[in-house]
Amino acid sequence: MGLGLFGGGVAATDYFARRGAQVLVTDRRSRAELAESIAKLHAPYVSFHLGGHRTADFTDTDLVVANPAVPIDNEFLEAARDAGVPIDAEMNLFFKACRAPIIGVTGSNGKSTTAALIAHILTAAGHHCHLGGNIGRPLLGEVERIAAEDVVVLEISSFQLEYLHGDRLSPHAAVVMNLKPNHLDRHETMENYASIKQHILEHQSAGDVGVLNADDARVRPMPTASGVRRVLFSTRTPVEEGAWLEGDTVRCSLGGQETIVHGLDGVKLIGPHNRENICAAVAVAAVMGVAPKSIEKALPAFEPLPHRLQKVAEHGGVTYVNDSIATNPDAAAAALACYEGNVLLIAGGSPKDIGFDPLVGPVVEKVKLLLLIGETGGEIEAAVRSADAERPEILHAGTLERAVAIARERAEPGDVVLLSPACASYDQFRNFEKRGERFTQLALQAE
């Protein structure tokens, strides 16, 4: 159910079809909309019902595999349950089949960078490491080639955690980065969203590890199961067990032994939020037995992921930065914290029902021109106007193309044109990557 556009449905379809199963793919999208995903299917003898769903497909089958974007209380999934048909998900299938230890990273912001940084450090230290999950790379198709002595690092979303919880599955090392309002269009309340994120810890066993953000008031008190090793990370204060930042130095304490890991000179990840990501990754690497010198060598070699404060162009002293990954207000506020001011901010998109209060202060302080796009432009303007401040100037550009054109006309040397939308992309783009790619194209043409 839901071939989707991000690869998980393709991986699950191929996984079963290659094993001789009769697979029916059902999706509300049309064949034309799914053409890119369909082209990636390698297995023969797959049938399709596209443009909608039929109840009979869900009740007369041996197994339903649901895309995590489908809410678990969806009417067709309920029909399957009522008919006694089991429901699974691509991530769940991978957990059950994977022989290697799994490190899972979740949180509202920073989970992609942290997961990639953990995998980078472990690989540099000699581990055979596999990076995947919500970061855009399903690993189900590779599961048979993943050896027991390998290590898997997964970014795990709240949608995926809902399905994992149903099968009582948690990773061997569970990292919770932070909790900020996000996806409330699906999860409805912050309390429900937080409880779903906590699922990553709930089914761990003795000997597993929970790695928690000591600076987040919602994350630090999350309970861990009996026998689970509890490790913290912080950018503000020393922790008894874990990693913390002291000035520009990362320190680590495990089992009563304290080590200095690295000064941050040469590290390409910028901004306070990335210091949080670094501390989390160092804590995990240290728990995995990676030596401080190895971590120290690996950190500066890490290249930031695309669409995350990515400098994509510079023309006449004006810098263009792609931060399309910022799909909630807290992420956009974190991006603004990286700059002194003189920012032309492009923001807006499709709603998540989470409000824009966290964005107001940083916008008033750092932004000289706010260019609004998409469905949420009016809501963002209302939030910023409520501050009753003289700045920023606010213009409704409507589209990303128009926003970049205005920015090109108005920007002066020393300014930063920042795409950090604080919203999802689905009103105008298929996903945040497509939005970031389009911004990059426009920025490169802005000379």
User: Helix content range of the residues, please?
Assistant: 25-40%
Kindly report the name of the CATH homologous superfamily of the largest domain: Mur-like, catalytic domain
In the predicted model, the low-confidence regions spanning at least 5 consecutive residues are: none
Please state the overall shape, judged from the principal axes of the Cα atoms: globular
Strand proportion: 15-25%
CATH class of the largest domain, named Alpha Beta
Total domains, how many? Answer: 3
**What's the CATH topology name of the largest domain?**
UDP-N-acetylmuramoyl-L-alanine:D-glutamate ligase
Calculate Rg over CA atoms. 22 Å
- How far the N terminus sits from the C terminus, by CA atoms, comes to 45 Å
Helices, by number, come to 16
Biggest beta-sheet profile:
9 strands, mixed
Q: Which class do the helix and strand fractions yield?
A: alpha/beta
